[in-house]
Amino acid sequence: MTVQPIRLFGDPVLRTPAAEVVDFDKELATLVKDLWDTMESQEGAGLAAPQLGVGLRVFTYHCDGFAGHLVNPTWTAVGDDIQDGEEGCLSIPGLYWDCKRARNIVARGWDMHGEPLQIEGTDLLARCVQHETDHLDGVLFVDRLDATTRKAAMKAIREADWFEGSTPTIKQSPHSLFGGS
Q: Quick one: which residues bind Fe cation (predicted)?
């Protein structure tokens, strides 16, 4: 098992958009395995490469009975239904807030061998795909919280035992609730 340290809120890599994967090679396969092993060791629903300090567009997921990985993902909402529920992040450990996401999505990308993939997700799987894709754009789920909740979240993060950064920042997502590129 190759468990890697997870980058925590305040690490600049979490705010940097990740590059498209262009080489579907042994290094990518190793990254996917490291993401998987680390995610599973923390009992996470998903983990994106920037959370391991790697600026590539790839993530793993394991939730609602579905498991796998997606390289260079895009997603679109199916319908207008919104879910508003508790969300957390391995890079913001132990803290959870309600966050709005599209309820139903279709995601497309590739597997580590360069074969096309499509994922249709509802509820938790849809939330996970949106959350992990946001990571690839340098966006964290706290950026999506309403102003009052975000203010409380920033206070809780600053007071967390694990937080060693400077003043937390908020970033605007390039994706609406109804589709991501």
A: 89, 131, 135
